[in-house]
């Protein structure tokens, strides 16, 4: 047949044209069916919600570090050879617990010698007292001379001074003997031993170990000059959302945490701004009953930075950016969508505060932002109520069209997405 077509080129041209026309017709029919299918499905579905509007206090976040309330470098007050170590490395110790013992024998001998000298001084003093009393009686009766009386009085005063010196020597020897037992000056967590048994300890110089308190614990952080001035003005206005005068309530989040779990209060502000950095040092006291927080850890602290007011909030997932512009998609009652520029603030309960651009009664696209452009300016809104605390899009259930529970429907545990867990 091919040979026949080659022999008749006119017939071949007619067949080719026919094939091309049929293919174009089939393609146009497929495109028309596809457009009809899209039109029949309607605008794409998206999850929408009203912004969260409630009384809030804006929180400013700063980076800082934990530090112990009390910290002690343990050193011996007397020298000698280390005889024993009476704690486990890293253990919790109480005030007064025995930590180290230095060889006590030389100090026991010195104490015994001082006590013996005290007995001798006491004997001499008693004799001088008796002789003084005898000289006074003789002087009154005229049998003694004034010179003899003065000599006895001098001997008495010398014996009294010797006795006081002997008592002081005994007290010093007793203290040295007691200092051979190194005890914990505070309650806290002890470090490892830095000297092993048998080493020579130099008084007041050899570092034996360190000890830090753990409950409560301090959190130090620096704030910029502008924030410090704002806090000063708030303090002058008496702004404290809790009505408590013990310090502003704060919360700290560790580097591996996503929420500010550790509550505390500000209890210290430094007395001057650092001229080199332009910052002010602040401190918060954080309870640490479970001993989890450790001195030296980094963290972020949230400090109240405004008086209480009614704020408009949205999840970060609903906010888009175009260079330096931030905007959200607002849905009208007829399903049309428009961009609404917004100015953002800080975060509260994992929501982003909207300072400008929204009043709170708008309907905003929360999930399905990529489908907005597919709808040609219109969408099918699927409303839900935002929870009190934002836990992310996964907490809202499957996205529209993903099957399973509809957006805004019941979750697996039977609760509504708007229900907040206390």
From TrEMBL:
Residues 312-375 form the YknX-like C-terminal permuted SH3-like domain. GO terms for biological process: response to antibiotic. GO terms for cellular component: cell envelope; plasma membrane. Belongs to the membrane fusion protein (MFP) (TC 8.A.1) family. Residues 395-422 are annotated as: Disordered. It comes from Vineibacter terrae. Residues 72-208 form the Multidrug resistance protein MdtA-like barrel-sandwich hybrid domain. Residues 111-180 form the Multidrug resistance protein MdtA-like alpha-helical hairpin domain. InterPro entries: MdtA-like_b-barrel, MdtA-like_BSH, MdtA-like_HH, RND_pump_MFP, YknX-like_C. This is Efflux RND transporter periplasmic adaptor subunit. One of its GO terms (molecular function) is transmembrane transporter activity. Transmembrane segments: none annotated. Residues 239-302 form the Multidrug resistance protein MdtA-like beta-barrel domain. Residues 409-422 have a biased composition (Basic and acidic residues). It comes from the Bacteria.
């Amino acid at each position: 047949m091919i040979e026949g077509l080659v022999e008749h080129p006119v017939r071949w041209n007619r067949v080719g044209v026919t094939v091309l026309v049929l293919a174009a017709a089939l393609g146009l029919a497929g495109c028309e069916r596809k457009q009809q299918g899209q039109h029949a499905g309607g605008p794409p579905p998206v999850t929408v919600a009203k912004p969260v509007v409630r009384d809030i206090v804006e929180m400013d976040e700063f980076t800082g570090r934990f530090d112990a309330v009390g910290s002690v470098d343990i050193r011996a007050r007397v020298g000698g050879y280390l005889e024993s170590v009476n704690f486990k490395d890293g253990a919790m110790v109480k005030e007064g617990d025995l930590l180290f013992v230095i060889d006590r024998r030389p100090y026991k001998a010195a104490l015994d010698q001082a006590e013996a000298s005290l007995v001798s001084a006491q004997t001499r003093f008693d004799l001088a007292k008796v002789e003084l009393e005898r000289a006074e009686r003789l002087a009154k009766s005229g049998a003694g001379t004034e010179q003899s009386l003065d000599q006895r009085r001098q001997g008495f005063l010398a014996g009294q001074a010797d006795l006081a010196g002997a008592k002081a020597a005994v007290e010093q020897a007793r203290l040295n003997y007691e200092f051979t037992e190194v005890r914990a000056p505070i309650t806290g967590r002890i470090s490892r031993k830095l000297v092993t048994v048998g080493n020579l300890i130099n008084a007041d110089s050899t570092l034996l170990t360190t000890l830090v308190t753990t409950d409560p614990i301090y959190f130090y952080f620096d704030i910029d000059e502008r924030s410090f001035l704002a806090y000063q003005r708030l303090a002058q206005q008496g702004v404290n959302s809790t009505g408590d005068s013990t310090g502003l309530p704060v919360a700290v989040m560790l580097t591996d945490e996503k929420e500010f779990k550790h509550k505390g209060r500000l209890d210290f502000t430094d007395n001057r701004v650092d001229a080199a950095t332009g910052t002010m040092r602040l401190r918060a006291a954080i309870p640490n009953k479970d001993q989890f927080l450790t001195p030296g850890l980094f963290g972020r602290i949230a400090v109240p930075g405004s008086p209480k007011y009614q704020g408009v909030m949205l999840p970060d997932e609903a906010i888009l950016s175009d260079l330096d512009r931030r905007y959200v998609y607002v849905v009208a009652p007829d399903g049309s969508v428009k961009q609404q520029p917004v100015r953002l603030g800080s975060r509260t309960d994992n929501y982003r505060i909207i300072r400008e651009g929204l009043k709170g009664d708008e309907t905003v696209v929360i999930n399905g932002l990529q489908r907005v452009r597919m709808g040609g300016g219109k969408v099918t809104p699927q409303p839900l109520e935002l929870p009190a605390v934002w836990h992310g899009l996964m907490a809202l259930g499957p996205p529209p069209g993903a099957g399973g529970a509809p957006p805004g429907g019941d979750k697996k545990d039977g609760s509504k997405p708007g229900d907040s867990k206390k």
